[in-house]
Design a protein that fits this description.
The structure holds two protein chains of two kinds.
Chain A lengths: L1 H19 L16 E8 L5 H14 L3 E8 L4 H10 L6 E5 L3 H6 L20 H6 L1 E2 L2 E2 L1 E7 L2 E5 H6 L9 H14 L7 E4 L5 H10 L5 E4 L2 E4 L4 H17 L13 H6 L3 E6 L1 H10 L7 E4 L15 E6 L7 H11 L2 H11 L2 E2 L2 H8 L6 H7 L11 H5 L4 H10 L5 H18 L2
Parallel strand pairs in A: 1-2, 1-3, 8-11
Antiparallel strand pairs in A: 3-13, 4-5, 6-13, 6-14, 7-11, 7-12, 9-10
Helix pairs in contact in A: 7-9, 8-9, 13-14, 17-18
Chain B lengths: L1 H23 L6 H39 L6 H6 L8 H7 L2 H34 L2 H16 L2 H11 L6 H8 L14 H28 L4 H9 L4 H12 L1 H17 L2 H7 L10 H10 L4 H32 L1
Helix pairs in contact in B: 1-2, 2-15, 4-15, 5-9, 5-12, 6-9, 7-9, 7-13, 9-12, 9-13, 12-15, 14-15
């Protein structure tokens, strides 16, 4: 009898658990109806200010009577799955925004329309080279640049002044000297670090490798191969090691997001960090005392007077192959890439628009973002292949390599060789 | 579990008409005799029909789809173009020929065993504690348990990561301050083992409440007279646990242990969030492997094949449980 009672509890427990697991909801999908056409546009959260899109859509609808723009803002979280579903489904959106490192994947899958013939019409002479490449696959242009942002060094102007540094460094050597001056001037604060650079900031590592003329991976015939063990890449890795050891007290086994480096910077015991615009703004938001005490400079190159090539983060615009309104979609994209809206995008969002020349005009003299624009010109992207996603997902070999090197567990040569062959293996298994 | 019981409850009457059908056959001529007999035979099936239908729709169909996809080459391109490319067992061959898969499998089994073992032992101790505590403390402990249980895994993982942070973590600070040596800048995520230890801690912290509260509910069902009787017979606390609590609560221990096995075997969130499978791929478990090789690289066929392997392993583990359940049901 008691036994049965106990069994009943077990049943109830099992039922509770069964009820607990649930899955996410579906996708809302508005479709066209009636005589007029509906153009469905998906942009990402935070990409374009609300008013900008509202004005653009009003202008678009004025020049295209009988067309209604159905504008939907998508969240970054889970967007890959949503895009996959949308491109494979029956109600494909007409214009989509893709993260610039996702474009190759969707282009290679055959889900996007070829825009190669129209790039001139869209003003490609002003696009950043790296952003143009991000939309290309197999020599064709399947996605066009929308906007981009990149990293720069954020520094404390007051601490620089106190340490007797009059102007920002223009080479890696100068940078390290300045860092040591900063550390010396603050030696009474045991928590002080001249540069908060964690060991696994692999976008910074990519910059330094590119700066030496190296690459993360190269294509040999139709096979990708890890290229970290080339002399150029090794020089870049050593450069990171040198910068880290000379200036940073951050842990060797974390990246810039755990903990968020802007939170660490905002505590006030950090002289510099290598950050994106939003991180600089978040630091200012977290500690109001920093207002007016923050300056920026581009990540210096080993060649004096130049800047290190930065990783270009950003978005592309694309037209799904399954869209029923190809021409309308193209008109919309063209309007978004027009001077008027690109200028507004730079002004209102602080991003470098597809037409990078406008970014220079609008943001070139901005105290924070001027450095971003300055270093964007030679910006690069990660290997432009769908199989690269498999390298970044899960345990990223670049991060593990840096931790091993910086914590003294492996030599640069050995760790780079291992990471390189792992990249080769991962890119082969996922192509 | 529920189904097991339902099936078995109806099992006896089901078998009776089944055996009786042979006798019924010769009577087929007389319609009057068949009428009520058939209704009696059909009724139990009708009664379980809704639950069977629900199971087929909610479990059978997805499982069939996963099994089917595991035989396809289904990358992003095939998905978008909606083409079906059968490749037979190629996905399985690719997985089984990957030496990394085998080390991940062994690692996952060991990790699951450690999580489940620790969860069961600690939860049992807490359940026994709850049984002994006074009302106020019991309430306090129960609330604490429920709060830990109710914390979303994502939030819990982020909080624990901060606790164990190398530079700013309170754990390092406390350990140093308490005189356990210099823990400032000690990295808990330096080696695979240490990282797994933290992951295990996060998981069992959230797994214990359910098991502890379930076992405590079971303990309340044991009549006090039995405790008195066993004490009169001269049993100490350990003897009481072994000879009284363990046998009475056996079904509860089993169901919670097996539920824990299912959860911990396929847990993803905590393992992924802590170090994305690092350092150096040392904390990649099977579910991370499926995500990384399959979903992230858009090889949905391969992901499905890995999932099927995981399902097969779980089914194998659960066979023991089901066999035990069948045996005890026959005893009842």
């Amino acid at each position: 009898m008691k036994r049965r009672y106990v069994a009943a509890i077990a049943v109830i427990a099992a039922l509770i658990i069964a009820g607990c697991s649930s899955s996410g909801g579906g996708t809302k999908q508005a479709s066209s109806s009636g005589g007029s056409k509906t153009l469905t546009v998906w942009l990402m959260d935070g990409s374009a200010p609300k008013q900008l899109v509202a004005d653009l859509n009003a202008e678009f609808q004025a020049s295209h009577p009988n067309v209604k723009v159905n504008y939907q803002v998508q969240q970054w979280n889970g967007i890959q799955d949503k895009l996959t579903t949308a491109l494979a489904g029956n109600s494909t959106p007409d214009v989509i925004e893709l993260g610039n490192t996702q474009s190759a994947k969707f282009a290679a899958s055959g889900g996007l329309s070829d825009l190669t013939a129209k790039v001139g019409d869209l003003g490609n002479q002003n696009w950043l080279k790296g952003m143009t490449e991000s939309g290309q696959w197999d020599g064709k242009q399947f996605a066009v640049p929308f906007y981009s942002a990149n990293r720069f060094v954020v520094y404390r102007t007051d601490l620089f002044k106190k340490a007797g540094i009059s102007s920002p460094p223009t080479s890696i050597d100068e940078w390290i000297q300045d860092g040591q001056k900063l550390a010396a001037a603050n030696r009474n604060n045991p928590k002080f670090t001249a540069l908060y650079l964690p060991g696994q900031a692999w976008y910074v590592l990519a910059s330094l490798i590119w700066d030496q003329g190296g690459n993360l991976a190269v294509k040999n015939g139709d096979k990708w191969q890890g290229a970290l063990d080339t002399p150029q890449a090794l020089a870049g890795i050593r450069s990171y090691e040198q910068i880290y050891k000379a200036m940073s007290k951050a842990p060797a086994d974390t990246d810039e997001a755990t903990p968020q480096q802007f939170e660490v910077f905002a505590k006030g015991d950090v002289g510099m960090m290598i950050a994106l615009p939003w991180e600089a703004n978040s630091a200012l938001g977290a500690n109001k005392k920093l207002t007016g005490k923050i300056g920026t400079f581009p990540i210096p190159s080993h060649t004096a007077g130049q800047t290190a090539p930065v990783f270009l983060g950003g978005s592309d615009l694309a037209i799904p192959a399954g869209s029923a309104n190809q021409d309308l979609a193209y008109d919309w994209v063209k309007l978004m890439l027009s001077e008027k809206y690109q200028t507004r995008l730079a002004k209102e969002n602080g991003a470098i628009p597809a037409s990078a020349n406008l970014g220079q005009t609008v943001l070139g003299n901005d105290p924070l973002l001027g450095s971003m624009v300055k270093s964007s010109a030679n910006g690069q992207i990660t290997p432009n292949d769908p199989s690269w996603a498999g390298v970044e997902a899960g345990a990223n070999p670049l991060k593990d390599m840096m931790t091993k090197i910086l914590s003294g567990k492996a030599s640069v040569d050995q760790a780079a060789k291992e990471a390189s062959s792992l990249i080769t293996q991962k890119m082969a298994s996922s192509s | 579990m529920t189904i097991e019981k339902q099936d078995l409850r109806t099992g006896a009457p089901q078998r009776a008409p089944g055996a009786g059908s042979a006798e019924a056959a010769p009577e087929a001529g007389s319609k009057a005799a068949v009428g009520p007999g058939r209704r009696a035979r059909v009724l139990p099936y009708l009664l379980i029909l809704p639950s069977v239908a629900a199971f087929v729709a909610l479990l059978g169909y997805p499982l069939y789809q996963v099994a089917r996809i595991s035989l396809l080459k289904l990358d992003l391109g095939e998905l978008i173009r909606r083409t079906t490319v059968f490749v037979g067992l190629a996905n399985y061959r690719a997985i089984f020929s990957d030496p990394f898969f085998w080390s991940v499998t062994v690692r996952t089994v060991v990790f699951t065993a450690a999580c489940v073992g620790l969860t069961m032992v600690l939860a049992t101790l807490i359940a026994l504690l709850l049984d002994k505590l006074g009302r106020a403390m019991r309430l306090a402990v129960s609330i604490a348990l429920v709060l830990a249980w109710a914390t979303p895994p994502l939030t819990a993982t982020v909080v624990w990561q901060w606790l164990f942070d190398t530079q700013f973590g309170v754990v390092n600070w406390v350990l140093s301050a308490a005189g356990f040596g210099d823990f400032s800048n000690h990295s808990w995520f330096d080696t695979g083992l240490s990282t797994f230890a933290i992951i295990t801690l996060i998981i069992i912290w959230q797994a214990i409440p359910f098991v502890a509260l379930t076992l405590y509910a079971g303990l309340t069902a044991i009549p006090r007279e039995l405790y008195e009787a066993i004490r009169v017979d001269g049993a100490g606390p350990w003897q009481t646990f072994r000879s009284l609590i363990l046998p009475v609560l056996r079904p509860l221990f089993l169901i919670t242990a097996f539920l824990s096995i299912i959860w911990d075997f396929k847990v993803f969130t905590q393992v992924f969030l802590v170090r994305h499978g690092g350092p150096d791929r040392q904390t990649i478990t099977l579910s991370l492997y499926a995500y990384q090789e399959g979903i992230a690289a858009s090889h949905f066929g391969k992901a499905a094949a890995i999932s099927m392997v995981m399902v097969a392993m779980l089914v194998l583990a659960l066979t023991f449980y089901i066999r035990y359940m069948l045996r005890t049901q026959e005893d009842l």
